[in-house]
Specification:
By secondary structure, this protein is an alpha+beta fold. The protein has two domains: about 5-130, no CATH class; about 245-380, 2-Layer Sandwich (Heat Shock Protein 90). The chain is built from eight helices and eleven strands. A hairpin with a 3-residue loop joins strand 8 and strand 9 (about 315-320). The chain is rod-shaped.
């Protein structure tokens, strides 16, 4: 799966799963709140029932002729009696017990009137600790339901996402097939043109047709470079890379010679600061695509009588031009495949995409700075 397909699939899954999780979380919270309220109401009803039982026992004590009075106790429920002024008389709470401060969150309370007054008691306060066992069981059930639903909907979302990106995959596959067929058809005429130009330059009389031959040579070189880029793009993830120590300084000078004709036509002045002993562990074909695309872009988008600055040292390769530049919006998208910041110069929009792919393969840091009508500077830091 290509990087663009993965990004689309991940974005779809994030939106799909986030909205599903939000919906199920909201529904689960509503269900949990309602069920918890119901469980607490059942425990509160138990307090009310026990309060009536304590009142009945208080009535029995009031009517008893026994000198010794025993306050009714309960194993799970605390109780206390208060007079008309709500002052504490007696109970199973730890004294002093103030009605206005009996608001603990982990307990349930029920205050009821005692009518008629038994033993001077006007109010009865009953309380019990909240039984969290059924509440914890409810929480576990909801959590298990959310995990199960998340697993089911993640699986479903993945297959839906694959269906979602399927048209994109088909379109990219057709485009790659087109590129493959195009590169195959381009190879023969390009080779023929270049071979014949070399023969004319070697054996023919071409002095009077120098400008025409140079234009043919530049066009052929451009076609050859496009062919190489399309082939690289099509086979990037398939061909074997031979990693070796490569002198980047020597390679860079060789490619500058290759682009001499294009530089002369646009009257571009080259400013070189190249160290000869810079070597990198890199596949030569990757290095060629890296250097050629940077030089080609710097020439193609440069102004006539502009400058081409090339700096190479042990930390970076920097290629800058004084050309048309790019806007911030174009700069943020220029690494994408088939993205062209300026359509007037032609091309497929794959040059900087290939550069970014090479940098990603070798963990190079690709930095691009550009200003409209002032130029562009590309740095590759290793």
């Amino acid at each position: 799966m290509l990087a663009s397909e993965k990004r689309s699939l991940i974005r779809f899954l994030v939106i799909y799963l986030a909205s599903t999780l939000l919906l199920f979380s909201l529904a689960s919270w509503i269900f949990y709140s309602s069920t918890k309220h119901h469980l607490l109401d059942k425990q509160r009803d138990r307090i009310v029932y026990e309060a009536e039982g304590i009142k009945s026992k208080l009535r029995g004590l009031h009517q008893s002729n026994d000198v010794t009075l025993y306050y009714p106790n309960h194993s799970e429920i605390d109780s206390a009696i208060y007079d008309l002024d709500k002052k504490y008389i007696f109970g199973t709470f730890e004294p002093p017990v103030d009605l206005d401060t009996m608001l603990k969150k982990d307990r349930l309370y029920y205050l009821s009137k005692v009518e008629p007054y038994y033993l001077g008691a006007a109010y009865l306060l009953t309380a019990r600790n909240i039984d969290y066992v059924p509440i914890y069981a409810l929480q576990k059930q909801i959590l298990f339901f959310l995990l199960l639903a998340g697993l089911v909907f993640s699986t479903l979302g993945y297959f839906l996402g694959r269906l979602f990106v399927s048209p994109m995959r088909d379109a990219i596959a057709r485009m790659n097939l087109f590129i493959q067929d195009t590169t195959h058809e381009l190879n023969t005429p390009i080779s023929t043109i270049l071979t014949n130009i070399e023969m004319i330059e070697t054996f023919g009389k071409h002095e009077e047709n120098m400008d025409e031959l140079k234009r043919i040579e530049i066009a052929s070189m451009t076609l050859s470079r496009i062919y190489d880029d399309l082939t690289y793009l099509n086979l990037n993830h398939q061909y074997y890379r031979k990693i070796e120590k490569l002198n980047i300084g020597v390679l860079l000078k060789e490619r500058l010679v290759y682009f001499t004709s294009m530089l002369e036509v646009k009257k571009i002045d080259t400013v070189l600061n190249i160290q000869d002993d810079i070597t990198l562990n890199i596949d030569k074909n990757d290095a060629l695509r890296l250097v050629d695309n940077l030089l080609s872009n710097a020439i193609k988008y440069n102004k006539r009588y502009g400058k081409l600055n090339v700096i190479l040292d042990d930390t970076m390769l920097c290629i800058g031009d004084t050309g048309i530049g790019m806007s911030k919006n174009d700069l943020s998208e220029v690494k994408q495949r088939f993205k062209r910041a300026n359509k007037s110069e032609g091309g497929f929009g794959i040059g900087l995409h290939i550069v970014s792919q090479v940098c990603e393969n070798y963990d190079f840091d690709l930095q691009i700075e550009s200003t409209i009508n002032e130029g562009t500077e590309v740095k590759i830091v290793w």
